[in-house]
Amino acid sequence: MITKRIIPCLDVRDGRVVKGVNFQGLGDVDSPVRLAKMYSESGADELVFYDITASAEGRALFTDILTETARQVFIPLTVGGGINTVADFDRVLKCGADKVSVNSGAIRNPGLIGEAAKKYGDQCVVLSVDVKRVDGVFRVFAKGGRVDTGLDALEWIRRGVESGAGEVVVNSIDTDGVKRGFDLEMLEKVCEIVQVPVIASGGAGCVGDFITLFRSLPGVDAGLAASIFHLGEVQIRDLKREMKDADIPVRI
Hints:
Layout: E1 5-13, E2 16-21, E3 24-30, H1 32-41, E4 47-51, H2 63-70, E5 77-80, H3 86-94, E6 99-102, H4 104-108, H5 111-120, E7 125-134, E8 137-142, E9 147-152, H6 153-163, E10 167-172, H7 184-193, E11 198-201, H8 207-216, E12 222-225, H9 227-230, H10 236-245
Parallel strand pairs: 1-4, 1-12, 4-5, 5-6, 6-7, 7-10, 10-11, 11-12
Antiparallel strand pairs: 1-2, 2-3, 7-8, 8-9
């Protein structure tokens, strides 16, 4: 049985890890280099590094802090932010990334997913989607959750996977930072339409939220969280022990 993955997320702005609520009110947390080293040593299965203002500011991802962070990590590292071309894939992979996450860049150029998958393989291409309910419909937002694209999120995810995305990160803006549990309704609909790994992001507040996620939706492959790990509210090794006790397959 495939084990469920636990993935801390480093949202990086100006070289520092930050965190907010519903993608707003970002506050300083810590150094990405220090946190990456800690997570690599504390039982995390993978790590995600997002340069969260690169797309909104119209610039390339800062590679100096990424390279320094990647040196501390001995688990798979996914990197995103300002990924607009295949050359951007090449740049961050050379900095130490194992997978590359595309979001706003793929919205502007949907062909990017297929181009990158053809060159680097589906397993390297992660489609990250920021989703928020608008009048009861799941809509795709761009530029760090600032812009409503008008795209239907489920249709966009389906198209992205058909184009070659080997994994999907579903970021719920509605539950981000709220710490009341993952967006199970949205995640269930995503799992119904794709066969690639689905990573749940947004809403984790305690160990029980992960257990509820994996019990309710066996099709979800991983749970991603930020502040509860950064602030020490949940220790990854404790979380995994409780998952194992709950008969959820996990790597200890």
